[in-house]
Specification:
single chain, about 230 residues, mainly alpha, 2 domains, 6 helices, about 0% strand
Length: about 230
């Protein structure tokens, strides 16, 4: 935004400079031009008609003086206007229009510095366009990378949630099997003592195994306690 305004400001400044250059060229050593072109100059000897005829703006004459790219500023009245907002916005628009088009619409004269200014506008417009493309490319790359990362993260989260659900199901299944084994252990133990089927062939869970060991310990200690009670009673 600032670049557009600066280019427009230089264009406005050079427009006034070219107009005064035309006046100086016309006057030379002629009489009737006075000592100054200032608006505050009240010298009646200044022949404004001579200046306007020799430096035509509304009906440009290239044989007399060609303003080139600065003719628009003189024809639009921006150079003569005292309305500051009007000057600012018009110069901004001129800079934006010509930088965005790389100076393709500029019709220059053979004035050296005007040609240099037009070349500078074209190169600067191209550089700004390349800078914009580079920023756009970087933004698209970051957006794509972020999208891929989010998609990968979503897949990993989905996989983790699925793994957690399966782990919960497995733990729940093990818990139910363990509870079933504990609840059925006394029945199976009684059947084993009756030799209906051998106990070692059963798949006993951890809780059932502990219950079985406690039962066997109690069974082995019981005769000892009976003998001890008999000895005490004697």
């Amino acid at each position: 935004m600032f670049v557009f305004q600066v280019i427009g400001a230089f264009w406005y400044f050079f427009s006034i400079q070219r107009e005064t250059a035309c006046w100086h060229l016309v006057c030379g050593n002629r009489s009737g031009c006075g000592n100054s072109f200032s608006c505050a100059n009240t010298d009646s000897s200044v022949n404004s008609t001579l200046l306007h005829e020799s430096c035509p703006v509304n009906a440009p004459n290239t044989t007399k003086f060609y303003f080139g790219i600065f003719l628009e500023a003189l024809q639009s009245g921006i150079a003569q206007s005292s309305n500051l907002p009007q000057k600012l916005f018009y110069c901004f628009w001129w800079g934006l229009r010509n930088l965005s088009s790389f100076g393709q619409g500029l019709q220059t004269s053979n004035y050296l510095w005007e040609s240099c200014f037009s070349i500078f506008i074209s190169i600067l417009g191209l550089l700004l366009f390349l800078y914009f493309l580079e920023n756009l490319k970087t933004y698209i790359k970051l957006a794509t990378k972020s999208s891929d990362k989010n998609g990968k993260t979503s897949k990993e989260e989905h996989k983790n949630r699925r793994g957690k659900r399966e782990e919960k199901k497995r733990k729940r299944k093990d818990q139910l099997e363990s509870e079933e084994a504990v609840s059925m252990f006394p029945t199976r133990l009684a059947l084993q003592e009756r030799k209906v089927f051998p106990l070692p062939s059963l798949k006993v869970q951890a809780m059932g195994t502990r219950y079985y060991r406690v039962h066997q310990l109690h069974k082995s200690i019981t005769p000892l306690l009976v003998q001890a009670e008999t000895y005490v009673s004697c």
